[in-house]
Structure formats: structure tokens, C-alpha cells
Amino acid sequence: MHAGMERLAVIDMGSNSWRLVVYGFEPGTPWWSLTDEIREAVRVGAGMGEEQTLKPEPIERALHTASVFASFCRSSGIGQVEALATSAIRDARNRDELLEAVAERTGFQVRVVSAEDEARYGYLAIANSTTVTDGAGVDLGGGSMQLMRLEGRELAASTSLPLGSVRMSERFLPGEKASSKQVRALRKHVRAQLEPLEWWPDGGRLAGIGGTIRNLAASAQKRLYFPYVDVGGFELSRDALEELIELLADKPASKRGTIKGIKPDRADVILGGALALAEAMDSGGCDALEVSEAGLREGVFFDRVLGDPPLFDDVRRQSVENLAHRFNSDHHHVEHVGKLSLEMFDGLAAGGAHDYGDEERRLLWAACVLHDIGTAIDYDDHHRHSHYLILHAGLPGFTPRELVLIGLIARYHRKGGPDASELGELERDDDQERLELLCGVIRLAEQLERSRDQSVATVRVVTANGGVKLEPEANGRGADTSVAVWAARRNADLLSEALGRPVEIAG
Amino acid sequence: MHAGMERLAVIDMGSNSWRLVVYGFEPGTPWWSLTDEIREAVRVGAGMGEEQTLKPEPIERALHTASVFASFCRSSGIGQVEALATSAIRDARNRDELLEAVAERTGFQVRVVSAEDEARYGYLAIANSTTVTDGAGVDLGGGSMQLMRLEGRELAASTSLPLGSVRMSERFLPGEKASSKQVRALRKHVRAQLEPLEWWPDGGRLAGIGGTIRNLAASAQKRLYFPYVDVGGFELSRDALEELIELLADKPASKRGTIKGIKPDRADVILGGALALAEAMDSGGCDALEVSEAGLREGVFFDRVLGDPPLFDDVRRQSVENLAHRFNSDHHHVEHVGKLSLEMFDGLAAGGAHDYGDEERRLLWAACVLHDIGTAIDYDDHHRHSHYLILHAGLPGFTPRELVLIGLIARYHRKGGPDASELGELERDDDQERLELLCGVIRLAEQLERSRDQSVATVRVVTANGGVKLEPEANGRGADTSVAVWAARRNADLLSEALGRPVEIAG
To answer: Is B393 on the interface with A (CB under 8 A)?
Structure first.
């Protein structure tokens, strides 16, 4: 933890699970991280039924979990706590009974979040963790489903419908086996609820949040072959969701947790959630859902600590710089490696040496900013450690494919040759060439900045006579570029191979 | 980097490679880490021959590298620099010519280390990175070989002989092919030099340092199947060394770098080093060599920043606590998990529930102190990240087997079941049971300390009636142990399975 870091706990008392999440943040800066978490499958909404009453057993579990959370906050010395209740508790006739008991036992003043606020927090989570500016969002909870419409990164419309996974499962799929008749009835019910929403889209991007969606995505992702990464940015296609639905419906409810990636404590309600989600996608004409790891809790956190509007300017840039900050990268150095890399990338493109574009440029920049984070683990093999950290510490706004590419570019910034087959099923035909070029560029930029003093201020690219000449320019104060030139000359092979022509370093 | 951290650069101008290593340390504390490194295969001693004269080309390379190092120190703002020259430069007739040119170009006042001091630094590296208290040590460089004898962790005797890998290779193996006659001559020469050393051991432990030894160990280790870890603590058997020698001697010098693990820039001198090492082992009656990642540079660093004597009290404890400190673990929490774990481990042993001993106790303690370091990467899956960090951040004093076991115990401190086959060839017959017990214990200790407030001060173990009862005792101030008991009860399965009897948590 950095000096000046404060902590805020957000407690999310959902219909299915309750979570306490602790965020560390530096007030007045965009730096933050999730530092702790406890999750309990409380199922407070279990058995509420038509009469909308919290049952004694779930209340018992809820009270016990609340006192666990309170002990945790006390003993960890966390003073700032936001405790929120959503759909199940909001809709319960006897909610005051529960909330008063919670207050008495724990001192938590639980805020019952309105359906409107719940959608707004979901929107903030989506807007700050994906690149969706215009499109739709869905937050599928245990009790309710929030639907949102984003226009120009603002929340243009929203609604909350009682179509959560616990609710749908209890109402339509009460037994061990899900009959096709039951499944049809569930689908029809969801469709009927969605139909009146005139603003629900007809195609376009759709982002999804919430534990049910994360779990479905994790299961779908595990059926593919690529490096193990979190589900953030994963695109769950409608087809993949349908495959999962078939797998789930084929098994009795109690066995659904044996399907790879499905959490056992969601086994009995995941199918109801999957069906509701499928209908939401169909009625919105969406072939795919972009998954975010953020959720209601992050929405609450962003609302509390970011400015007004509580939005990061640029999600991807923020993710990358936040991660570099967490691992204490020398930001003058890594940003300068980024600058020199982009100068070479652009200069080579201008000279016709490659025709990659904005996407590669973005990945290259991200890899530059993150290439040294592995030194926080060990200087030896730090390129490998940077790779590990990039894959596993989370980079909202990037897809798994982009994440793996960024990781590989950082992985090969010092030595070795990249191998596109490490992308697994994420590999595209020309990825080997793409990686060699990007690794070739970052490797030279790193060497031109080997002395870490920005002595090479800029680098010019001259393409002529079938070769490439890089001309490092010393910064104005008569800086010594001898290290840079010496180091770069010994590391030009990879770029030269990638371009299929000699690369000369002027000096 | 922590606040209050200072940096010291040590430049090691060896006969084969030159290295600049930067250490971060907090004065007055035992916390340190290697933060940066540049290595150049300068080969300053190349071609010195009998006349003991540094040749123009090596001098050229040396001067260039020195100015690279100087630029690096200037631009990184590193003020404290220790520049040292060893064997090749020490023995060169024209060394002043080189050292004056270095001083003029860079300002470095290079200290020529005496053979005696070189051995002493090697001794400090060994004594602070291995558990050898009584035994022998060997530091194999490019120019010389230092031999040491440790008694009661003190340096009892030492010598430096001109038997380095570059020197031996140039003198005895000058061509592409190594004939058996040449190999025999080399061996005989080394043997003759070692014979007069009356204090050189007859059996016992032998620790080895230096780049040649690390590289030989890396190659031998790569021929085995177990998780990728550094060579620190690896036991290079005499047999494995002989296999490597055969492999190396079979290839022409320029192709030896194609052998897995052998660095290409050592290809032409590694065989000479391997043969010299084999003779040192044979004449000392040592069947195996314990490899350390530390070396002359660390010796210099320890000598500068530790007290007098410049020795850590307990190498393994120091390694573990240093690593926990680097990743900002909550030390009250992790040490308390350690305390509770050892209470259970000891209580269960006393009750006859297992018969593991000191080794397991030590691994369990280390895993406890390190179990949360992964949260520095991401809270999600932090058990996996702790595992990664333990395997890759270095723990001097532990063998690869111990390292992998510590990693696995930490890996399974929250959930899942350990699988001993992850040890690969390091697995022993009873490791599955061993791991289940140790993971079962740490998991309960973690839950008894779930609220992180040391509210459970101690835990008593009662074994009776074929079952085990754990009795947590609240600390004196009337602490609330409800979280602890509740959490532990839900996590007793693994220990219960490991013991083959029910485990009850009193509350």
C-alpha cells in the first residue's frame, strides 16, 4: 500500500450473495485497488415467493454474515463503510425487521438502494471498466435485472425488473430437472417483461455485470483454449451461452456445479439466470455480451471517490497507468519507452515498413508502460514476471486477446523471440508477424532508454534504399547517448527480422 | 520501493563477465532487494596467456562497458558505487593502464580485491544464503577459483587459485574440439594445485557460487522435471555434473551454447569450468554441491550494510521475512497465522495424530508468513499469486523441493485440495499426505484469524475418542471469537480428511 492510501469498505447485500469488498485509494488521484474481500452465499431472498417475505432461515444467515462483516471491519480498522441492500431486501414486506436487527447487532446503517440508483451504480461500473460509450448494459443479480442504455457515456435510460437468477429459478425451475415446458415458460415471462422497453436496443454493443454473468463467462471461457486470465473483457457470444444453457439444462440442478467453471453454490440458480440473460440478448438483438469484472460495488466506490461526473477519462489508459502505479514503475522511464516506441511505430508506418494501425499502437503503448512491473517480484527474469502480472492483475477495457498480446510484448522486451501460439485460440493468422514487429520496436526503445535518463529525446525513422535507419536525437542539454546507441545496436536483430530489412542505428 | 530505502551499486569487474548490480536496502534493518542489473560478457582476461598482459581488444571492451555503467549510475542517480576488480585484472602486469583509463573516463576508483578478500566476500555470500555452518565453499570465476572452509559459520581457511573457467579453457582447451588428452591434462593440473591444501575437506557439505556454477546448475536442473524455479538451493550432484561434462565435451566449443540451459556467451569456457569444478569436488570427497544465487557482489553488499559480523542470524527466517516485507504483508496477521498453525501442528503431533517433524514445521511456518503476499498482485486468486511469488522471488536457504512445498502450502491456504504431483520429480512417496496435513492446518489457522485481530490468542488441541477437538481461546480483552469459530467450522474438512478423523471446533 502506498503512503496516503485510505480504505473504504462496500458491503453489498444482494439477493444471492453478500460481499464485503475493501478498496484502497489515494484521495485526489485516480489510483485505487481492491485490497480485500469476503463473500457469503447468504441467499437472503430464498423462498420469498409471491408474498414477498424474507424467511426465518435466510434472516438467520443474513444476521450471522452481517456480524462477521462487522467484526472484520472493526478488527481491520476500516472506518468508512457503505452497506447497501438491493432487490430482495428492497422488495421484502418485512425488510425493516431485518435491517433493524442488523443495525442493532452491527451498527451498520444499511441503505436500501432504489431500483434507479442500482441501475446507476451498474452504469458507473460499466462506463468505468469497459469502452462502451453508446450501447446497452445489463446487471443480472439474484433478485433483479437492471437494464441500461448508454449514450455518449451517459446513462440515457434504465430500468430494474424482477428477473434475477434466484427469482426466476425459484418461480419457473423449482425441481431438480428443468423440463422444456418450464424453460419455455421462463423465456416467455422474461420476453413479456422486456417487450414494453422501447429504448432497449436493436443490435449494438452490450456490456454485462454481476456474479451470474461472470460465472457464465468463466465457464464459457474455460471451454476455450487460451492462457488463464480473468473474464474481464471476455466476449460471451449468444451461441456460447446457448451451448451452456443446453449443458446446464441437461443436468439436475444439484449437479450443475460440476460443469467446469460453474460455482457449486450457484448450481441451482445459474440456469434461471442464463435463460433470463439469453432472452435479454435476443430481445436486444445482441449477438454477444462484453463481460466486466466490475459491479455494483465498484459503482458505489467510483461514485464516492471520483469527481463529478465519476468517470475516468479513458478507461484503458487509466487501467494501464493504475497498474504501473501499483507496482511502482519508474514512470519517467516507462513513459519515455512508450514515446520512443510510438515514434518508431509511426515512423515505420509512414515509411511503408508496416501497415498496422491504432489497435497495435495501443497495445504497444500499454506494454511499454507495463514492461517493468515485474521488477517488483524480482529483477531476474522480470520480463516473465511482468507478463504474469499483466495477465493476472486485471486491465479493464481490454479483451483477453489484447491482454495476452500486451503480456507477450512486455514478455519479450529484453530477449527471446515471441511465439504467437501462446495466444492459443485467440491467435489470428498474422499474429506472429505482428508480435515480432511490436517486440522488435519495444526492445529498441528500451535500449535507447537503457540509461533511463531520457538522454535520447526522440528517434527519427528514415526508410530508404531497402533499409531502415533510426536516428536518435540527444536531448538539448548535450546528453550522452553513447549507452543508448551502443545498447540499441546490439538489439536490432528482432526488428530487422520482423521488417525483413536491415536496421541501422545512427550515432 | 519502501520509504527510507537507499541504493548501492556494486560493480564486479570479473575475468569473464562484468556486472553492475543495484541493491535497495533500508539502513538499520535487514530488508533488502536486488533492484537492477546489467551484465556484459567483457572477457577482460581473454588471451592474457603466460605473459599476464591484458590485450588491447579486451581493454577496449572493458572501457566501453565501464562508461556504460557510469552513464547508468549517473542517470539513475545512484551515488554509492563500489567498483571491484578480481583475478584477471589483479594478476595483469598492465592493470594500472586499464584502471587509470577507467578512472579518467568514468571517475570510478576501482578497488583491486586481494585474493584473500575475494574469498572472504565469497564466504559472506555463502554464509548468508545457505544453511552451511560447517563445510566447504567454492567460488568459480573466470580467472580464479576461491576455496573456503567454514567452521561454526566463520571463515576458517581460504585460498584463491588461478583455476578459473576462462583461464583453464584457454590454456588446456584452445580448439573447437576437446580431446580426451586435453581433458586429462586439465584435470591433472587442477588436482595438482588442490593437493597441497590440507584443510580442503574429506566429505561433508559443499556450497558453490559464481556464474559458471549457476549456469551448470541451471542446465542440470532443466534436465529434470519439476516447476521452473531459480537454481538457488539446487543440489548439483557429482553424477549430474559428469553427465553435463560428457555432453559438453561431445560438442565443438562453439556449439556448447545449444545445450539446454547453457548461456551461449559461456559456450566456449563452460567445459573448462566444469572440469575444474569436478576435480575440486573429487578431491574434497563431495558427492554434491549446493548452489547459491548469491556471489561476490552480495558479499560486498552484506559487508557494507550488515553489522559485525555481517551475517544474518538465521538465513531461512531472514529470507522468508524479507520476502513478506517486500510485498507489504500485514505482519501481525501472518505471524499470528504462523503461531496458530504451529500450535495445531505441535498439538496434533503430541496427540499422536501425525509424526512429521522439524522440516514440515519449518515449511508450514514459512508458508504462513508468505501466504498473503499474492494480494500485492490482486486480491482475486491471491493464493495463486502467492504461489507464483514464492516460486520466483527467491528464498535463499531452501532447496527447490522445499520452495515448491512452501508454495503449495500457501497455494491451498484458502480452498481446493493440494496435488503432490505438482512437485514433479521432487515428489516423495508420502507427499500427498504431508501436503494435505499442512494445508489443512494453515487453512484452519487462517480461518481462526479471519478477522485479523488476533482475537483467537491461542488454540489448544485435544485428541480423544478418535476425534480431534480444537479449542480456540479468546485473548484477554474479551475478544469476539465468533467470526473465527464460524469461519473455522466451515473449513475443517481438509484437516479432517488428512487426519482420517473428525475435527471439531469448540466455540
So the answer is: yes
The DSSP bridge pattern shows strands A145-151 and A80-85 to be unpaired
Say whether A392 and B375 touch across the interface (CB within 8 A): no
CB neighbours of residue B354 within 10 Å? 17
The strand ranges marked E within B80-164 are 80-85, 111-112, 135-140, 145-151, 154-161
Distance from C-alpha of B76 to C-alpha of A489, rounded to nearest angstrom: 22
CB distance from B451 to chain A under 8 Å? yes
Q: Do A68 and B487 touch (CB under 8 A)?
A: yes
Q: What is the pLDDT of residue A477?
A: 67
Ranges of residues in chain A with a pLDDT under 50 are 1
Q: Which residues of chain B lie closer than 8 angstroms to A452, CB-CB?
A: 72, 75-76
Residue B423 has phi, psi (to 5 degrees) of -75, -15
Query: With an 8 Å Cβ cutoff, is A378 touching chain B?
Result: yes
Per-residue confidence (pLDDT) for residue B265, from 0 to 100:
87
Per-residue model confidence (pLDDT) at position A450: 83
In single-letter form, the type of residue at position A359 comes to E
How many angstroms separate the CA of residue A99 from the nearest CA in chain B?
20
- Contact at CB, A34 and B230, closer than 8 angstroms: no
Burial class (CB in 10 A: 0-12, 13-18, 19+), A361: middle
CA distance B35 to chain A (A): 6
pLDDT computed for residue A68 by the predictor: 84
Domains of chain A: 6-113 (3.30.420.40), 116-295 (3.30.420.150), 315-505 (1.10.3210.10)
d(C-alpha B413, C-alpha B383), whole Å:
7
pLDDT for B13 equals: 96
- Give the model confidence (pLDDT) of B322-368 as tens digits: 999 998 778 899 999 999 999 999 999 999 999 999 999 999 999 99
Q: What backbone phi and psi angles, to 5 degrees, belong to A17?
A: -115, 155
Contacting residues of A for B1, CB less than 8 Å apart: 328
How does strand A206-209 pair with strand A135-140?
Answer: parallel
Residues paired with B211 in a beta bridge: none
User: Which one of B35, B64, B392 has the shortest CB-CB distance to A375?
Assistant: B35
What is the least distance, in Å, from the CA of A460 to any CA of chain B?
23
> Are the beta carbons of B385 and A392 separated by less than 8 Å?
yes
- Count Cβ atoms within 10 A of the Cβ of residue B313 and give its class: 0-12 exposed, 13-18 middle, 19 or more buried: exposed
C-alpha pair distances (Å), B148 with each of A30, A416, B119, B123, B347:
54, 37, 7, 7, 42
Answer yes or no: are the C-beta atoms of A119 and A140 closer than 8 Å: no
Asked if the Cβ–Cβ distance from A64 to B486 is below 8 Å, we say yes
pLDDT of residue A77: 84
Are A455 and B384 a contacting pair at CB < 8 A?
Answer: no
User: How many CB atoms within 10 Å of residue B3?
Assistant: 7
Q: Put the strands of the sheet holding A467-474 in their side by side order.
A: A456-464, A467-474, A503-505
Q: How far is CA A387 from the centre of its chain?
A: 17
Sort out which chain B residues have CB atoms less than 8 A from A68's CB and list them.
451, 482-483, 486-487
Residues with pLDDT less than 50, chain B = 1
In this structure, what is the dihedral angle of CA atoms B240, B243, B249, B251, given to the nearest 10 degrees?
Answer: -110
